[in-house]
Amino acid sequence: MTGNFITTRFDAMLSWGRKFSLFHYPYVTACCGMEYMSTACAHYDIDRFGAGMTRFSPRQADMLLVVGTITQKLAPVLKTVYDQMTEPKWVIAFGACTVSGGIYDNYAVVQGIDEIIPVDIYIPGCPPRPETVLDGLLKLQEKIKTEGQDWRWKKKTS
Amino acid sequence: MEEKDILIALREAFPGVVLETEMSFEIPVIRIRASALPAVAAFLKAEPRAFTMLLDATCVDFPDRPERFEMVYHLFSLAGNTRIRIKAGLPAELPEIGSLASLWKNANWLEREIFDMFGVRFSGHPDLRRLLMYDGFEGHPLRKDYPLRKRQPLFVKREAL
Amino acid sequence: MTTAFQAEARPESLLINMGPSHPAMHGTIRILLELDGEKILNADAEVGYLHRGFEKTCENRTWWNLLIYTDRLNYVSPLINNLGYALAVEKLCRLDVPERARWIRVLMSELSRISDHLTCLAAMAMETGAFTAFLYNMKAREYLWDVIEQTTGARMTTSYIRIGGVRADLHSDYEAAVRKGIEETRKVMKDVRGLLDKNPIFLGRTRDVAVMDKADAVSYGWTGPALRSTGIAYDVRKAHPYSNYDRLSFDIPTGDRGDNFDRYLVRMAEMEQSLRIIEQCLEPLRRARLEPAASSVRLLEPVEAIKAGRTSPPAAPVRLSPNLEGAERRVLPEIQTADPRYALPAKEAAYGTIEGLIGHFQYFMKGHGLRPPAGEAYAAVEGGNGELGFYLVSDGSDRPYRLHLRAPCLHVVSALTGLIKGRLLADIIPTFGSMNMIGGELDR
User: How many angstroms away from the CA of A117 is the closest CA of chain C?
Assistant: First the structure.
């Protein structure tokens, strides 16, 4: 009994630390990048939620923020960047193009990045308002809290 | 220079090359034989016509016509503040035309894009390869017979959880 | 497959790849570099990582529907793209746009242009280390986007400037918001100029770096701020004026050296000129102010209007849903062309009478609605990067046969490899930043 109590408290502490210090890798391609910039800057300030640390190297990031359309040409690069990230890692699909291909249903665009990598949070919008993005981030934080040290994510990366 | 002076000079210098002329709103349009394109372009670039800038180069696909690919070039003269449109038709079996890369530096990328999207070849181009699509992509997307949604994925699709 | 670049590379040099996932927030471009230490021996730029099939998609969408795709071309100044496309179609259809709509278009274009330049300079400054300039510019941009959102409903991808006019009239409080935006932008510009204009680090990284001379710039097809930084004063708003620009007084700032710093200065000066234009627009818009419906008149509910509309058009104004604000019958003649083949009927008619409903429905029905005459047209506007041209070929049906975008930044970026050859690796960042590459426009 005591062992379970200690491990659950330990889980909770680790989750608390992880969710309030998400280092994100902004994989910015298109128009959603402008709303990403707005979210990251003074007006809407993603840093209030602890997620303001932009790491431009996948090795140093734990959240992949895929912002903007992913084309077929770019898809292998996205997969490489995702594979280079160390666990635990989460993926947010930011904007309609990453969720489902958006308004582009043609020869050049991947119809949703979940065809390539597993996604945790989908933020719809074209582009989503900064408030929507922050809502998505809070949902991710909720997810991290409830997921705990559950090694389910290990299964999802394969 | 006035458009009619340009046309007169062009007809004098290149007999039999100018097929038809018209006005598209305020832009004069000159349709020429495709084989004469580099010479005509060089003529227009030189003084006193002075069309020193290649504004744009593109292609339109008319599958029903005998000359399937219609090359469209927009030239611009900074001194005279006028635009001119040059058109040349290419047959479907061998769509090849002379490159303008030696005259204007941006022709390099513009022609690469037309090659990528339509499959038109440019003789004399220093480095003709795809610009926008990736290696391994087969076909030329902007042709009318290429389906809009025909995807050629570069990655292995992940099975959904 | 070995490319020419790899084949030509010297065996002792280092081949390194920059991008396509770029920290320098410009989207996606891949620059292959052949380096000797820090010195660049050869470079090759690979684009197309944001090729979203705009031109092919537009051949499969109706004329009014593809307006949403034009927003996403140069996505930092979406209203200018809307305007370019609308002008090209209006030329083809020979449409007249009402006076008020033209002034609103100028106002919106200039707001978009300022937000384009703010974003470009913010990114350029941030990449050279001046993060404060980035935050300040983004702050000013928020005030401008407030104005745009008040009227159009969206901050960025607005689809507001439509064929034949604009979608809705300006919000009743727009003037206060515009003045606030102008004031904030001026403050921010003053602060950022104070931080960067005489800053030895910024000057050291941008002065005399990537110098482009006039003849080469013209040969590359450069237009816009990049061309003006070399000294050639070509601006589409002055050379081929559209939409009331010939009635406004503004200057064309030019540089003299064509280096990165000149491109920065030209953009700063252009923002000031755009603010001047906006201030000049406010007066004609005020003079052409439409009187709001008198508050004593009782607005008809839609149900009553429908009942009354069975015999004759509704006599009193109809209460419309707030979503339809700005497109009521009394404002429609001022914001939209009068030609019924290319314009939507008034909302009261669409919701209240059967003729209006049929007219509204037909406009959007496949095979009907907006069908320009067969022909072709080229119309250009001054975008944030230069001459933004739309070349349309119509075959008389409800879809374009061919739509081609003359993307200004394709020409500017094609010169990148020439500019950085022989320079150091760190010079790529401010050079690329000053070019303002926008992926949506470059790759279409």
Answer: 16
